[in-house]
Prior knowledge:
This protein is mainly alpha-helical. 62% of the residues lie in helices and 7% in strands.
Amino acid sequence: MQSVAIISGYSTLHGALRSAERNWVSRLDAALTADNLTADHWAILSQLSTDEGMTMSELAAQARLPPSSATRHADNLAERGLIFRVAATDDRRRILIGLSSLGAKLAARIRAQEKLAEEDLRSRLGVRRYGEMLAALSIIAERDD
């Protein structure tokens, strides 16, 4: 029988990554729930800017959400006035999505909480290990398609 390496008490990389993600999101949970947001809402808001928009397919890819889920969440955020949809100036058939001023203020508040959590993690891991972790996660997150 082949032995399985244990990563932080989890027998698979999948388990370790899911646990890490859930733990990370729970650190932002207070900021998210205070504004009735989910982790998927934050995935969308954190990808948008007020300066230039992106298409729904670009947003779904950047937020790592299935297109139907991204559309559903974007609809919810638009109803709340946090994002806007506008026709692209170069091609009026293309719809771009961006942060409204209300959405930008909310994103800034949550980003501040996220930054504090990142600083805490960086101090716990040390600068070198933190950088190595980011590099490893970047490789894991790369798409082969």
